[in-house]
User: Fold this.
Amino acid sequence: MAYNPNNPIWHVLYCVTQKPELTKSEWIDPNWMRDKRLIILMNFINKQEEAGDMNYVELRSRLDLAHPDLLSLDEWELIINGNLMDIKQFGSWVKALRRSYYRDQMKAAAKAYADNPSESNLDTMMQTAQDSMSNDGDVNETTMAELAQDMDKRLDTHRDDGIKTYAPINTAFGGGLMPGRLITVGARPGVGKSAFAINLILKALEKQPKISVDLFSLEMTNAQNYNRLISSYLGLEGRLMISLTLHYLTSKRAMYARQGRF
Assistant:
């Protein structure tokens, strides 16, 4: 791999070869290195159980035994001639490396789908996007004392922000449908997932008339969703709604025929 001082790979490698114990505080996926030999190097460092007691000289010695001539002397020079400030900015370099890797993965997946818009390429692109989002961002650890303090504060200033629907659901979710949660309902076709969701919407609107709900469907049309909402609201079975709709259309047709408009 050609050396580029702006490439976070070299900065991260400098940090982990100078202080291998850094890999215990920040996970680095070897694949982020892209180059096959650098992937082997990163994978080797990740597997060192005694990284905290290891320095650069011992790391090189172990690596040479496990993977002789993995890197040339010139490549080692590129790695070790870093800046001591890099170690203080290790977390930032890892974040830049992670984002750079997933950005390139997204570009490749998007190009593959543009060249061949197949289902397989679409699935790959969507999975890559999902992986990118799930691996983006920092994880901030919280101490037990901070968690206890936060719990005391929430108990003293309790607010019930959950959207109320049915009593069992309110209980199961600790007070209703809470913000910041994604709830997935899975079942076989025809079991009643959409009907269940519509009933939740109606119950939520009944309990909290001022809220607004957005309903998106990839299977049913707006008319079908509307009919389901009306039938649920009126307590009618779906087949009766179809009968009422046909009766309404038939009546309209007869009226237009009498008026000479049909």
